[in-house]
Description:
By secondary structure, the chain is α/β, with parallel strands linked by helices. It has a domain at 12-189 and 232-258 and 297-311: Rossmann fold (3-Layer(aba) Sandwich). The protein contains eleven helices and 13 strands. It has a seven-stranded parallel β-sheet, sandwiched between helices. Helix 2 crosses helix 8, helix 5 runs parallel beside helix 6 and helix 7 runs parallel beside helix 9 (264-274). The radius of gyration is 19 Å and the shape is globular.
Amino acid sequence: xxxxxxxxxxxxxxxxxxxxxxxxxxxxxxxxxxxxxxxxxxxxxxxxxxxxxxxxxxxxxxxxxxxxxxxxxxxxxxxxxxxxxxxxxxxxxxxxxxxxxxxxxxxxxxxxxxxxxxxxxxxxxxxxxxxxxxxxxxxxxxxxxxxxxxxxxxxxxxxxxxxxxxxxxxxxxxxxxxxxxxxxxxxxxxxxxxxxxxxxxxxxxxxxxxxxxxxxxxxxxxxxxxxxxxxxxxxxxxxxxxxxxxxxxxxxxxxxxxxxxxxxxxxxxxxxxxxxxxxxxxxxxxxxxxxxxxxxxxxxxxxxxxxxxxxxxxxxxxxxxxxxxxxxxxx
Length: 331
């Protein structure tokens, strides 16, 4: 278990913060860490994909939690919730690439219009800094590895385009107003509380769901595609570092990953072993629309601007995640 106080001392004690998507996968881990650090946290979520169970009963350690059930498109609710906040961690989003292809209008409403409304509410409330949940999807299928923030961007689907638009809004608000912003490009986040119920669930969550059911893992594609799998505590750490940094971020994109490639085939083998199903053979299906082939983060900028280093490596994070899925399933 990550010792957040050891990493971040007393910086957030008594500080009021807003976490959009606070009942979701990444958002709830941010809420948990901030409460342990003694912050006053407003978890803002419309519960369309988030779950109250993710944040109810979290240890407070002197922190306080308020839950606001509303959409980020609701400017009135946003303005009320954000009042008095020093920081905003903007995690609310449509995150599924296939869903964004099916409903690009909804994707743009949530990820672009919603982001602008969060920024505007933050500006009017005098917030110090907004941390934005960006995505490595903006690199698309550009072949160069590792991915550096200075590379050209490529938006092969509405989700990637919406995240790129969000980054542009971060830079625009940091340039035009007295509001600093940080655009954190997440690389393939996984960990406890990641939903496995969606048809478009993250690959680790999807593999866990089939393993728990005693079914063979299904790989979309040939299994040679690779990801920079990043345990959720690393992303929380990067967000907290970005918030407390004395250096202006100016909306510049910053990669957040582990700088390590793991193929989907390797992942399947590891998870089948961890679930005690090494005798199974994976099945193969067609690649999913919009999926990139390879991703790998260059962390030079994160090290320079944030002092960021991954705090949980892939194997340790995967073991913790598998244990969580097994415990949640009563195994």
